[in-house]
Each structure stands twice: as C-alpha cells, then as structure tokens.
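Support case: adenosine-5'-triphosphate complex. Customer-provided input:
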Amino acid sequence: MARRPLPRILSTGSAQIARSRELARTQLARSRELARTASDSASDVLHPLITITRGLRRLASAGRRKWADTPKDRRGSLLFMVASVILVVALVPYGPLLAVITLMAAAAWQGRDRGPSAPEGPDASQTERLRSLYEALVPYFSAAEDPAPLYAHGGEWEKAFPEYEFDGTGRVSSLLIRYPAYFTDGEAQSRARIEHLLTAKSGRGREYHFLWDEEGNELTVTVLAPLPTDIAAQRFVTAPGETVLGFTDDSQVQRTLPVIHGEEQRDVPPVVWRTGIRSTEPHLLVMGQPGSGTSTLLRSIALQALQYGDVVIVEGGGTGEYACLIGRDGVLAVECGPAGALASLEWAATETERRLIAVNRARQAGNPPPDDTKRPLWLLLDRPTAFSHLAAADHRKDPQALLQVPLRHGRAAGVTVVVAEQWDGLDALSDAVRQHTRARVVLGPATAEQLAAVLGAPPHTTPVADVPPGRGYARLGTGPVHRLQVPATPDPYDDATSDAHRQAVLELLPERTTPMEAEPPARLEKAEPEPEPVPAKAVVAETT
Ligand SMILES: Nc1ncnc2c1ncn2[C@@H]1O[C@H](COP(=O)(O)OP(=O)(O)OP(=O)(O)O)[C@@H](O)[C@H]1O
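Agent response - structure generated as follows:
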C-alpha cells in the first residue's frame, strides 16, 4: 500500500514548533546571561558592604565571646573601661567620626576573605581512624535481631559519629557517638567496656571524659587537658569555712579563683570544701598510696585552717612531715607518738562535748553560742591506723575510738576531722570514720574498685598513665566526682623542696608563739615512753 503523505499543515506546524522552541531556548540563555551579569556587577558594587557587614558580625561575636569568657567578678571593671572609652571618644573633637571610620576599617579587615577555606570533612587518615573506631564498636552496639542496625561491619560511620574533632596530631579530640537504644547504658560494666575500648583505640596517655546521655542515646567523648601542677601554696580568696582542696576542670565547677603563678595571675576552677554548721560533708577522708601526696594535702588544709581556727595534728607515719607547724600560733599539738596521740584525741573528744553542752545551754537560754565555741577546731590525722595496730599490740585504747564524738557531733561543735590513710590501712579504719567522712579524696594511682569504694561512684574520666603527686579525684557527698590537683605545699624542711615552694609555705605559716626549745624534743619521735602531756591550749580549753 502506498504511504500517504502527511497533511501539509502538520509538517509545517512541527517545523514552526521546533523553530519557536529554539527561539525560546536562546531567549532563556540570553536572560540567564543578563541575570548573571547583573548579579556579578551587583556583587561587585555591594562587595565592600558585604565585607563590612561580615566583619561587623565577626567583631560582635568576638565581643560576645570575650564577655562570656570574662569571669563575673571582672565584668564590672570591663564595662567601666568600655564606658570610659566611649565617653572619651564622644568628648574628643571629631571623635565619633573617627570612631566610625576606625570601626568600619576594623570591620573591613575582619570581614575580608581569608583565603581558601579548609576542606570540609575529615581527611583520609582521619576517616580511617573514625572507620576503625566504628568497626571496633560494632560488636557492642549491634544485635542480630535489629532490622536496620546503626552499627554493622562495613556500615556508615557518618551516621554513628555526627560530630568529631581532631587535634594537631591527627588524633580524635572530641567525638559524639550515637548508639542504639537497646544498648545497656545503665549498667556500669557495659559503659566501662565501651570507655575502655574508646580509650585504647583513640590513643592512650591522654585523659578522656565520657558523658552518657541515656535519654538521647548519645555518648560524648572529650579529651581533657592535663590539670596544672604548677600552682603553689598561697592565700586563696575564700570565705571562712571554705577550704580549697585543689584545682579541677572548668566544665563541672562554676567558680574560679585567682591564683598567682610566678609573676602572673590566672583564674582556675577550684574544688572548694565547705565545713561548719551548715556543711553537709563536715569531715574528710583522704586515701592514697605512699608518696601520692596525702600529707601534702593535709599540710595545705592545715595552712588554710590556721587562718581562722586551731589545729591538732596526729601523725601515725612518724616522718615528722609537720615539724614546720610546731609551736605556731593556733597549732595546739603535733603528735607523733601513740601516747601523745591518745592524749590529744581524748582532749579533742572532751572539748567537742564541752562545746556541744555550751552551745545547747546558750540555745536553750535564747543566747547566741558562746565565743569559746566559735573558733573552728581541726583534727588532722595522718595514718591513724598505725596507732590502732600499736594500741592493739599493747592492749591500749584505739585512738580511732576517740574520734567517735568529734565525728558525730563535730558539725554542731565546730570541730572538723580530716583523716588521711594509705590503701593498706583502709580496712583498719573504724566504722565511725567511714560513716561520717562524707567528703572524699583519692590521690595517686588507684584501681576502679578502689575509686568506687572510696568515692561511691566511678569517675567519668579515664586514669592517666603517669600520675603526678597530688593528682587524684574528689567527691563532696553525693556530688560529681572531680579530677583534682592539690596545690604544691611541700615540707619546707625537706631538702628536696625547691626554694620557691619552700618560701611559699614559710610565708603562710603563722607566727611562732612557743619557742622551739620549749617543745619537748621527743615530741616528734615515733616511740614515746611517757604519755604526752595534753597540749597547753588544750588544758586551758578544758578547764574553762
Ligand atoms: N600537690 C603536689 N604538688 C607537687 N608535689 C607534690 C604534691 N603532693 C606531693 N608532692 C611531692 O610528692 C612527694 C610525696 O608527697 P607526700 O609526702 O605528701 O606523700 P604521702 O602520700 O604523704 O606519702 P608518704 O606518707 O610516703 O610521705 C613529696 O616530695 C612532695 O613534695
């Protein structure tokens, strides 16, 4: 069959349509070109304005950051300084105009393009690190029954690690990890397994902080900077009843203390322990292994306590580490022998009862507490279990038994007990000491079990490989576990002490009120044949 030609109208129509399409395309391309040229010239014209706006934004956010970083107590002076500058500018001839020009110039400088921006996302080696971390977590964060597992071998690590940061050495410095809701994050063992794995895989030798968000099924891992070990003993800016145990991270402590370091002053976050009538943790237990710095912490506490109170020191180690305090104003006794320790603690128990009775009588009579009950009394015991062993061998009274009254009633009577003990003496500590010392410090290396036993909760940070002396953890009551670095407060009579540290401690010592010759020489010797007389001031207090 012969093919019929298409109707003419159709063939010419399609040609026309094709032509008009071609025309539309050219017009579109031309208008795009026009728009591009217009936008290019507009951005050329507006470029300075855009740069200045960007610069102003950067300056404003820098100002906001500076304000947020300024400690609250310094904000007033900062505000005053800014107000003074504004006033001076307003008063100077052409000042406002010059100020606007300077501001625009600074904004233009700040807002300039700063070269090619850093490439987005991790580089090859960082990707490899994150992938290997992800793969290591697969066995812990996956279950065979999960139809859409977040963790699977060869899976997408990007979904599991939405945020990450690396340090200069290419190691992870901060990481946000998502995990499935069925992971048993409420169990300490499950958490510990993950924390151990992450520590090993992210690089040992650093301290990590783990923040578990059980509600959001997220774990934030942060690498912590080492705590400063160079802060020496000094007068800390604290109120009466506050004692600085040491320094910690700024993440968990709102307050900072100005400390002098050499010529400089800097603000550091302290662990402040409150004692006295309103304290919920009126007594402290310090644990550590030999050489971890427990005596140094006691010396630091004594120097702070002596500002407002009296101190009795009982030293079971017999190393004479508190000799610098003998005869100083406010130091009622430094006892190194069992008989002296017993006598001092007997006096302390009686004194606590006396204060308690006096306070109660005054209260019942509607009077304020008498003056002779107000001066805080501190009982500092370094290794008291050494005396417990000696007392048991000699069939004498255990000095720890005498702590019962000061521990139980010390808060109301203004008596604070601090006990420092080594790990081998932990079991020999009396029940009263364990029950009433609600402020806790652990110094030096310690196992997870030891930390949990003393602090009552595991720290959220991993242990450091090399623990400097005076480094550890502190927990006040049921509060968070803080990392702690005790200020260097060495024995000034120790030959190994540096001159600067020796001078720092000597400057804090109160005046010597009892001449050294008046002190019986046997006082600092370990074995004492005769019972020590009750300290001079103690007798006075007892008879009043
Ligand atoms: N916070 C600190 N900063 C700097 N050095 C410290 C600190 N704490 C302790 N040291 C140093 O560590 C050494 C041991 O300290 P310290 O005597 O206080 O330990 P200890 O736990 O009481 O041990 P021991 O009972 O065996 O004496 C000392 O040389 C001391 O100067």
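The CA atoms of residues 288 and 443 lie 5 Å apart.

Case will auto-close in a few days if no follow-up is received.
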